[in-house]
Automatic annotation (TrEMBL):
Keywords: Kinase, Phosphoprotein, Transferase
Stretches assigned to the Histidine kinase domain: 56-264
UniProt KW Phosphoprotein keyword: yes
Catalytic activity: ATP + protein L-histidine = ADP + protein N-phospho-L-histidine
InterPro entries (UniProt xref): HATPase_C_sf, HATPase_dom, His_kinase_dom, HisK_dim/P_dom, HisK_dim/P_sf, Sig_transdc_His_kin-like_C
Protein name in the entry: histidine kinase
GO molecular function per UniProt: phosphorelay sensor kinase activity
Length: 264
């Protein structure tokens, strides 16, 4: 009787397939790593270009401000101006202030990104900065017939910070609340101690912010897509600048959206 003997299965075919797949996976991983490196380089270049753009834009916008201020000043000094001149002067001054605010914001953003913004740090009463910002905001809220209230503590709350930059932070937050709060609405400011920290809460009766947009509210040029928000959209710089300045002070800023209004 003829006998047959089968050769043992060494598994070489299966091992070869596995090796081929591993090599292919390794090539895919290498391609992904190279693509990621190229994408990172492109992103870094884009950020660098963006920083230079902010610096150049701020410089170019600042150049015509001086002659515009001279024109506004000349209008104010006219001995016997026509009836419409005071109204035109008021409009020009308001728009000029907005432009100055925008240019300063762009300049600050560029300097923060380049690590060139230096803070003049001292121990200061935080309520002094809040009161200064409230004084600057009062005409804006009165023009919209809004109720602006504040509750300050009796105790002296001291923080280590740059007074002028703190005023800038609080004014940006308050002017943002004024912008998004309807006429006859309400804005409130409360200051209190929370452990070793000072907490400042700004609340308004505006329409609120879409929950999906909350994680991006402090991003540069972020704008809520809601129609009512879009109609009052600003430069998209203010809140991003607020976060950067607050973090430079070692603090944090957050927003809580509710169906009617928001709280910072």
């Amino acid at each position: 009787m003829e006998r047959f003997s089968a050769a043992p299965d060494t598994g070489l075919v299966g091992e070869s397939v596995l090796i081929v797949r591993l090599r292919e996976a390794n090539r895919n991983l290498l391609r992904a790593a190279l693509n990621a490196r190229d994408s990172l380089a492109v992103a870094e270049s884009a950020l660098s270009n963006q920083d230079r753009f902010f610096s150049v834009l701020a410089h170019e916008l600042r150049s015509p401000l001086a002659p515009i201020k001279l024109v506004a000043s000349a209008l104010e000094r006219l001995p016997d101006p026509p009836e419409e001149v005071p109204r035109l002067h008021q409009t020009l001054t308001r728009q000029l202030d907005s432009l100055v605010h925008l240019v300063n914001g762009l300049d600050d953003v560029a300097r923060i990104k380049n690590g060139k913004l230096a803070l003049d740090m001292h121990v200061v009463p935080v309520t002094d900065a809040i009161l200064a910002a409230l004084e600057m905001t009062q005409p804006l809220s009165e023009a919209r017939q809004q109720q602006l209230t504040f509750r300050l503590p009796e105790e002296l709350l001291l923080v280590r910070g740059d007074h002028e930059r703190l005023v800038q932070v609080f004014f940006n937050l308050l002017s943002n609340a004024v912008k998004f709060t309807p006429s006859h609405g309400a804005i409130s400011v409360a200051v209190h101690r929370r452990g070793d920290s000072v907490c400042i809460e700004i609340q308004d009766s505006g329409p609120g912010i879409a929950p999906a947009f909350l994680p991006f509210i402090f991003d540069m040029f972020a704008q809520d897509g809601a129609p009512q928000a879009h109609s009052r959209a600003g430069s998209g710089i203010g809140l991003s600048l607020v976060r950067s300045l607050v973090e430079l002070h070692g603090g944090t800023v957050a927003i809580g959206g509710v169906p009617a209004g928001g709280r910072l």
